[in-house]
Amino acid sequence: MARRKKIYEGKAKILYEGPEPGTFVQYFKDDATAFNAQKKATIDGKGVLNNRLSEFFMKGLTQVGIPNHFIKRINMREQLIRSVEIIPLEVIVRNFAAGSISTRLGLAEGTPLPRPIVEFCYKDDKLGDPLVSEEHIIAFGWAAQQDLDDMVALALRVNDFLSGCFLAVGIKLVDFKIEIGRIWENDFPRLVVADEISPDSCRLWDIESGQKLDKDVFRRDLGDLADAYTEVARRLGVLPSNVTHAAKPTLIN
Ligand code: TMP
Ligand code: ASP
Asked: Any idea where the SAICAR synthetase/ADE2 N-terminal domain is (predicted)?
């Protein structure tokens, strides 16, 4: 079969032209990067796990009525998605202090925040995805005021949904990042959750032990990243409970 046309290659995923207009195929690589790709590795099985986990969360969002780009999983590493105009902002929601907000504001990691805090970073690798304010976003035309209001509402709905999913399996959702895209329907724009939702883009701590089950394991050299992601998948029922990373992930259909 002729190879599909590559639309875009990022650090952890590749987008190919889809089989029908308005669709893309999203391929999950095993590559892991951190600190704007200053640190890099290949983690066997990460792409397979993130493909399956992102499918799980996007389907769950659909079930509770939160619009997103997911159509269906095609195979171990690929999913069919709707093509969207990505808004060039990373939308971060924080429930507890960790990572950059801890550094920036001198808050101990794990400090509960008074309410979920939504932050925006401008997506530009050359600049290291800087934190920006709503003023910047409006003034530079990255999104309109209405889009911003809709993005905050969407991000908070995703936060409620994901926090509940993780709480049910003994995991605290410390923070996460999503990307949001625009889909045009009969000349009307609609905002949808795009990109991926996986332990690459969340901070996940075991509620009892505080053990990290997300990409900080790689960023901070805390152990085996695929083991951590396998544990998240196993708890969510995405993998059978008797699977260990050593045995290699086995997927449930
Ligand atoms: P931060 O504390 O480093 O700002 O990260 C906040 C959340 O966003 C955390 O869950 C990790 C996620 N994140 C990404 O998904 N991509 C990124 O490029 C960065 C910097 C963070
Ligand atoms: N910024 C991403 C992260 O740390 C990856 C990268 O910057 O290379 O999650």
From this structure: 6-235
Do 33 and 80 lie in one domain? The reply is yes
Provide the pLDDT for residue 218. Answer: 98
Q: How far from the centroid of its chain's Cα atoms is residue 13's Cα?
A: 12
User: Ligand 2 pocket: which of 9, 11, 33, 203 to mutate (most atoms <8 Å of CB)?
Assistant: 33
**Of the ligands numbered here, which is closest to the C-alpha atom of 109?**
1
Helix (H) or strand (E) holding 68: none
Is residue 213 situated within a structural domain?
no
155-168 pLDDT, tens digit each: 999 999 999 999 99
Instruction: Give the distance (Å) from ligand 1 centre to CA of residue 177.
Output: 6
Whether the per-residue pLDDT at 1 is higher than 80: the answer is no
Q: Which atom of ligand 2 lies nearest, measured to the CA of 37?
A: 8
Which residues form the domain of 47?
6-84+224-244
Pick from 241, 245, 236: which is nearest to 55 by CA? 236
CATH number of the domain where residue 77 is located: 3.30.200.20
pLDDT over threshold 60, residue 242: no
